[in-house]
Amino acid sequence: MSQKPSVLVVDDESGILDTLRILLRNEGFEVTTAQGGKAGLEQIRSGVHDLILSDVRMPQVSGLDILNAAREQDPMTPVILMTAQASLQSAISAVNSGAFYYIQKPFSNDELIAILRRACEFRAVRVENKQLKQEIRRRDRTAVTRPIGKSKRFLELLKLAEHVAPTESTVLIQGESGTGKEVVARYIHNLSTRADGPFLSINCGALPENLLESELFGHVKGSFTGAVRDKQGLFAAARGGSFFLDEVGEMPPSLQVKLLRVLQEREAIPVGATEAIPVDVRIIAATNRELEEEIRRGNFRSDLFYRLNVIALNLPPLRDRRDDLLLLLEAFLQAMAQESGSEPKALSSEALDAVMVYEWPGNVRELENALEHAVVLSRGNLIEAGALPERITKRRKEPLVAERSYRNPTLEVIERAYIMWVLQAEGGNKTRAAEVLGIDPSTLYRKLSRYEEQVEVKA
Fold first, then answer.
1. Is CB count within 10 Å lower at the N or C end of the chain?
2. 50: nearest Cα among 98, 82, 2, 94
3. For residue 35, what is the enclosing H or E element?
4. 220 phi, psi to nearest 5 deg
5. What pLDDT does residue 423 have?
6. Which residues have C-beta within 8 Å of that of residue 130, sequence separation ≥ 6?
7. Which of 67-81, 120-134, 230-244, 444-458 has the lowest mean pLDDT?
């Protein structure tokens, strides 16, 4: 809050506005006045005020309308309501609606100033508490669940996400379907200064154009058939928080123009409305498309791409994160066990082999679904390979020992022959073979997967 608290005074009588302006300025407040409720709403939408002092009974727009608008704009702004016709019931109603205080006209100057100063202290405490919570969250990142992974590319991506999270920069997350783009978006939100606000999301490719427009921007009553009342859009509902636009590359061109306005002007116009509403959200977008290629094809606006692509995060596919497979397996099986209230199941050696060499075109989502499929079909605590979806287990068998001989073998050929020899010596046990070789089990699985690909190509 500024050194001089700013107060917006709303009343339909000019004489009262003049009197309060002089009084409050003499007491050290910065004063803005609005004659009538409609002018008050415009002031609330166009500026930030530490306190609001409003009359209750005004034509067209009442003090309760002012209260609701102020709470939507900034829930921490104290609103004091004034009325010449006070009653216990109206006072209770106003306080229950969120008013800081309800004062009856005529009131003494000292009484009003005392109420306003208490309101200033109340706001200062709330602002400080919010800032302290945000600082604690930034310092103690262990309180925020970190996405699972230890591979180099994934850790580099998380480091960048953690670096940009406290900023207000727009983030564009690119990656194949199922790689966990929303998980990373939530992680950014939870580490941001907006973590106390909402995190809302929408899949831009899941709704028809007219419905998507209404969901994003809202609409006013009568704007189209079926619009029986005003509807708040998600940009307004996410005020003070983050808004995740998944599959933004699927957005129709007409809505791309409206989204560009939101990013440039920080305001949105509901369907059927003539006045814009302010937008106070941090936008995180995601796509599985190559947007630069979509621009060349004329399917995506270049100016929108540059507005979205302020900070780019490229999420690697699961096949490039082999080191993370075991961690993800354990986490998913543990979560499924907790959900069902049972002991976690484990994969048999054969089932684990199949999982580790499979390419996972559907990425982390496919892995989770495959494990759920296997858990449901397995009666005991051990998941056999037959419980996994057939596409995962149906592959060519790799011989343990290379059958071809080479006159002048390359280093790769020698490495492969040695690995196969150790694997055969250990009876096919990949964990023990990895220990003998002095490499991580996931590295061994990756090498075996590459050998299998080479055999299939030669076949």
1. C
2. 2
3. strand 30-35
4. -105, 155
5. 83
6. 76, 196
7. 444-458
pTM equals 0.64
Within 13 Å, how many C-alpha atoms sit on residue 53's CB side?
26
**Tokens coding 260:** 């560009």
In the block, which residue shows the tokens 């002095």?
438
Residue 436, token pair as written in the block? 């003998």
* Distance from C-alpha of 123 to C-alpha of 55, rounded to nearest angstrom: 21
Q: What is the CA radius of gyration of the chain?
A: 30
Report the DSSP beta bridge partners of residue 311. Answer: 171
**What are the E-state strand segments in 46-141?**
51-55, 79-83, 101-104
Burial of 130 (0-12, 13-18, 19+ CB in 10 A): middle
State CA 344 to chain mean position distance: 30
**Across the strands, what pairs with 271?**
219
Q: Are 43 and 34 in contact (CB under 8 A)?
A: yes
Tell me how far apart the alpha carbons of residues 225 and 81 are, in angstroms, rounded to a whole number. Answer: 38
* d(C-alpha 43, C-alpha 66), whole Å: 10
**How many CA atoms lie within 13 Å of 83's alpha carbon, on the beta-carbon side?**
17
d(CA 105, CA 140): 49
Query: Which residues, 6 or more positions from 335, have their beta carbon under 8 angstroms from its beta carbon?
Result: none
Largest alpha-carbon pair distance within the chain? Answer: 106
Sign of the CA dihedral with 438 first, then 441, 443, and 446 last: positive
| Complete edge-to-edge strand list for the sheet that includes strand 51-55 | 30-35, 6-11, 51-55, 79-83, 101-104
Q: Where, residue-wise, is CATH 3.40.50.300 in the chain?
A: 146-316
Torsion angle of the four alpha carbons 255, 257, 262, 265, in this order, in degrees rounded to the nearest 10? -160
Q: How far apart are CA 417 and CA 434, in angstroms?
A: 14
CATH homologous superfamily of 146-316 equals P-loop containing nucleotide triphosphate hydrolases (3.40.50.300)
CA pair distance 427, 421, nearest whole angstrom: 10
The top-level CATH class assigned to 6-132 is alpha beta
d(CA 363, CA 433): 27
Of 1.10.8.60, 3.50.50.60, 3.40.50.920, 3.30.70.270, the CATH number of 319-393 is 1.10.8.60
Q: Which helix (H) or strand (E) holds 174?
A: strand 171-174
127-179 pLDDT, tens digit each:
888 777 766 655 655 456 889 999 999 999 999 999 999 999 999 999 999 99
